[in-house]
Write a structure and sequence with these properties.
Strand content: 15-25%
Radius of gyration: 27 Å
Structural class: alpha/beta
Largest sheet: 7 strands, antiparallel
Distance between the termini: 24 Å
Number of helices: 21
Helix content: 10-25%
Length: 890
């Protein structure tokens, strides 16, 4: 037990494995839930070719093995089956199972009926083993966007979709959800986490896990623990109090173990209190001994640092593998033989791996606990619904929204993210979608031909070299669109060749790459406009790039980051002055060592940038002649990415200036933020409306149009506090000092820290508006054993049906122990027609009153607590008191 705020763990116990097997799937997620309010979505804005193309990416799942899906398979006690299998293995074969057989795969052992299992990243889509535009993946709203919905039923249905995607890609184990806390807006992977609050993070994460695992695919909660930022992530030592660790940072993990029943957990790169997490005692206590976790603990990739320390600890599987840098294998066998690592530790690790295999259908002779996914429905409708449910309306003066197409003549859609948005963050959360609907396309489709929609970028954002696209290059031999890619062996012979759709190429665990020593990509660039073009390469290794046989790059590119070649590889480029209509043959050769497990690079072309002042003036002129100006701004790939933290919170480039200039000429200026984490909004009082779209996945434009036209509610409420200034007191640093990052805030993270500092953010935690208005009428409470139930009445005072998020916070200012000013205790939604009251019940579990005491664990302080009810952490109009009685004396 580690946190005072969450579900009552007695109402959601982790079921014993024996009773979990054969459990039926949740009936609530077998079909889409009915819409919360009348759904009047507009036409599908995708081009016909995109609609046709998706039929292949989302084809029905191939028939799974009988061992996965056969309801008539023999029922065998999994533990008996595992013990029998374990008894057949000698030490060498047991140890071999504890290191991956490749980048994404575990080792097979046919003698005991164990096949390989495939693990793959999955926070916002399941990539599969190949990062290939020919095998696209559904791109989901980022985790922060899902958490902004505060809707566990919706997130559970998204989990089912993830399971279907996983099986379509041949994946057994999805590496997600990420439930590290959004401790600071500077964190590079802020978008990949759910919330700053442990209760919301735990409940949303548990819902996703239940959805994924209801279809026989394992979820992996990560990164255990305190991997809340990217700076020095491989080595940083995070220090915090025992109370902050258990009450805040372990809380979401505990909830997902207890209420979600997660089957796998990933140990992080960082250290906590001087011990790297792959060797941490936290992998045993509280994880297994207190919470009852019986699943597999896998390392983050390349995070296993030692043979003995990790061998004795609770780590079960070291990934990836095999390889000379892996500390297990023969070294672990020797450590067991020498008595430095007990063999019973190895046996326990193998048991955990075999239990996971039995759950996902990878171990013969055991019926998995959940059915294999049925053929997946086309995911567009659910992705569109989920994206809209996460959009947060921060500000609305009522003058511009919702849009009424019947009253509009001309709409300006402006900004660098209007036509080409960011639908996902960078790093392991990245997938290649089958299509992307941008805001410009979505609004044009929704408004129809009667409304003139005009576009200008207005503010160019400087970013990394963009990959050349299929539309820009053709194969010099066949003339087909794309690049001709050839793989060369040590003798110079061509091992394989293929046509690829663009210049962003990555191969991991590829057998052709393992036999090759060089890759060549060739294409004829068809120049579209006059001016200086940046032409270059990004990657790690030896590169030689020629344009019409003139060498423009010839260099060895290096990085110290083991994943840097994938996440943020170094780049080199040359500037060439080209003419429209010119054709230039680009030839890139990449050389590397034989038997390398993978490689990748970007062949990039950046066309001439428009003159910034002219571009800005053009956008302002369009805005001045429109009834409404919609400005879509956001971040670049330089921020919001795995591998690095942000260096500032401002919008990059001249986007702030663009917004202010547009607002000066058009009072109906609507700003849409396409960012995975908070940005500063110095113009927020100057515009008619502000919406946060986050990184919303491939259906962004369609979902945004649904919201802007009032067809659906902007369903989101902030899962994170939005700062007003860079130097706000609750904005925490992510920069270690001498390798150490001290969490001096203790238990006062997020909105708790803002309240303690007495600071006013731009927008508080839980904030969000809709297309109707609400009042909080009354609250009554009753005890239910050790728990409480708050019966809350609210009234829809507007003219439209709607859905309202009711939030409950606790406080105890006269406590004898340190407390937050207030803390989130529960939440639920209410729905009502116009001018109608409705009453809903809020469950306040006993653990919401608990605090962690060093050396004692969870404690409940008797006395009176105040329950606050409202619409955000700072708008809490209803209060009542709850009394925790003193325990009876012994």
């Amino acid at each position: 037990m580690s946190q005072a705020n969450g579900h009552d763990d007695r109402t959601h116990p982790l079921p014993p494995v024996a009773t979990a097997y054969g459990a039926a799937a949740s009936p609530e997620i077998d079909s889409p839930a009915p819409p919360r309010v009348p759904d009047q979505r507009g036409p599908d804005p995708r081009a016909p070719e995109a609609r046709a193309r998706e039929s292949d990416p989302h084809a029905p799942v191939s028939e799974p093995d009988a061992s996965v899906s056969d309801p008539h398979a023999p029922v065998v006690d999994p533990h008996a089956r595992i013990e029998a299998a374990l008894a057949e293995l000698d030490l060498e074969r047991k140890v071999r199972l504890l290191t991956g057989s490749g980048f994404w795969r575990t080792a097979a052992e046919p003698a005991i009926g164990l096949r390989e299992m495939v693990l793959c990243d999955g926070p916002a889509g399941v990539r599969g083993e190949r990062f290939d535009e020919r095998e696209p993946s559904a791109s989901l709203p980022c985790p922060t966007a899902l958490a902004a919905s505060w809707d566990e039923d919706l997130v559970e249905r998204v989990g089912v979709l993830l399971a279907g995607e996983a099986r379509r890609k041949g994946v057994d184990v999805v590496l997600g959800p990420t439930v590290n806390l959004q401790r600071s807006p500077y964190a590079g992977r802020h978008f990949e986490c759910y919330s700053e609050d442990p209760l919301l993070s735990g409940r949303i994460g548990a819902a996703l896990v239940r959805g994924v695992q209801s279809r026989g695919v394992a979820a992996t909660v990560k990164h255990y623990t305190a991997n809340d930022s990217e700076t020095e992530r491989y080595s940083v030592d995070v220090r915090m109090s025992e109370r902050a660790l258990h009450e805040v940072h372990l809380a979401a993990f505990e909830e997902i173990v207890r209420a979600g029943g997660v089957w796998a957990l990933m140990a992080a790169y960082n250290s906590v209190d001087g011990v790297t997490m792959t060797e941490s005692p936290l992998l045993e206590t509280p994880l297994r001994t207190e919470w009852g976790f019986d699943g597999l603990v896998v390392s983050d990739w390349f995070a296993t640092r030692s043979t003995e320390g990790a061998g004795r600890a609770g780590l079960d599987l070291a990934m990836p593998g095999p390889g000379p840098d892996q500390p297990w294998g023969a070294a672990l066998v020797a450590a067991v033989r020498d008595g430095r690592v007990p063999e019973r530790a190895v046996d326990d690790k193998v048991r955990h791996l075999l239990l996971l295999a039995s759950r996902v259908g990878a171990l013969d002779g055991v019926r998995p606990p959940a059915p294999a996914p049925a053929p997946a429905p086309e995911p567009a409708a659910l992705l569109r619904e989920a994206a809209a449910a996460g959009i947060v309306l921060l500000r609305d003066t009522g003058t511009a929204l919702p849009l009424d197409p019947g009253r509009l003549r001309r709409v300006a859609v402006l900004g660098p993210n209007a036509d080409t948005p960011r639908i996902q963050g960078g790093g392991s959360a990245t997938v290649i979608p089958p299509y992307t609907i941008g805001p410009l396309a979505g609004l044009r489709a929704a408004l129809g031909p009667e409304v003139r929609v005009e576009h200008a970028v207005g503010a160019r954002i400087r970013h990394r070299l963009p990959a050349v696209t299929e539309a820009e290059v053709r194969d010099p031999g066949s003339g087909a669109r794309g690049l001709r890619v050839r793989f060369f062996g040590p003798d110079g012979d061509v091992l394989h060749e293929e046509l690829r759709g663009g210049g962003r190429l990555l191969w991991l665990d590829d057998p052709i790459v393992a036999r090759a020593v060089a890759i060549e990509a060739v294409g004829v660039l068809e120049v579209g406009e006059d001016g200086p073009h940046r032409i270059g390469v990004a990657g790690v290794g030896r590169f030689r790039l020629a344009a019409d046989n003139v060498v423009v790059v010839d260099e060895d590119l290096v990085t110290d980051d083991p994943l840097g070649g994938i996440l943020t590889p170094p780049e080199r480029w040359a500037e060439l002055d080209l003419k429209a209509g010119q054709e230039v043959e680009l030839r890139l050769r990449h050389e590397f060592a034989l038997e390398r497990p993978g490689t990748g690079f970007v062949l990039g072309v950046d066309p001439p940038a428009a003159h910034e002042n002219e571009d800005l003036a053009h956008a302002v002129a369009i805005a001045a002649d429109a009834e409404v100006a919609i400005v879509v701004v956001g971040s670049t790939e330089e921020s919001d990415s795995e591998g690095r933290d942000r260096i500032h919170l401002s919008l990059p480039g001249r986007q702030d200036e663009l917004i202010r200039r547009v607002a000066e000429v058009n009072p109906n200026t609507v700003v849409v933020l396409n960012s995975g984490s908070p940005v500063l909004l110095p113009w927020r009082s100057e515009v008619a409306a502000i919406l946060v779209g986050w990184f919303p996945g491939q259906e962004f434009g369609a979902a945004l149009a649904d919201v802007l036209l009032g067809r659906v509610e902007p369903g989101g409420r902030l899962p994170v506090t939005w700062p007003a200034y860079e130097d706000d007191p609750a904005v925490l640093t992510t920069t270690p000092i001498a390798g150490r990052l001290d969490y001096t805030e203790g238990i006062h993270i997020g909105h708790r820290g803002w309240a303690r500092a007495g600071a006013t953010p731009a927008y508080p935690f839980g904030h969000g508006l809709g297309w109707t208005t609400w009042t909080h009428v009354a609250v009554e409470t009753a005890s239910s054993g050790p728990d409480f139930v708050a019966r809350v009445t609210v009234r829809n005072t507007g003219t439209r049906p709607g859905r309202h998020l009711i939030q409950a916070y606790l406080s105890r200012p006269d406590s004898t122990v340190e407390r937050p000013v207030s803390w989130l205790a529960s939440y639920t939604h209410a729905e009502a027609d116009p001018n109608t009251e409705t009453t809903v019940d809020l469950h306040i579990p006993a653990r919401a009153f608990q605090h962690w005491a060093a050396g004692k664990g969870p404690q409940t302080e008797p006395g009176t607590y105040t329950l606050h009810i409202g619409s955000s952490s700072t708008t809490l109009p209803l209060t009542t008191t709850l009394t925790i009685p003193s325990p009876n004396p012994a």
